[in-house]
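Put briefly, the fold is written as integer tokens. The lines below illustrate.
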Amino acid sequence: MNLTTKQKQHLKGLAHDLKPVVMLGSNGLTEGVLAEIDNALTHHELIKVKVASGDRELKKAIVDAIVRETQAVQVQLIGHVLVLFRQSEEMKIAVPKAK
């Protein structure tokens, strides 16, 4: 799923007040963490994940792995906070139509 700039802006606005649902610690990206992110995406559709890593390359690799494994869309990455979106069948969040 690809999002247009307008759709991403809309989702960023919705995500602004959200708190991180999942926080990656010193153990990094484990199967349990991936399962928790997948559950949160299924339930909420739009979530924040806090990626605590000082190394930029490692953080980018972790973010890429999360996006790939969960089939989610990376909406935004600011500092250590990643915003993810994955539409569920219930379509709880209305995304503006792509033109």
Summary: Strands lie at 22-24, 46-51, 73-78, 81-85. The mean pLDDT is 91. Residues 62 and 86 are 18 Å apart (CA to CA).
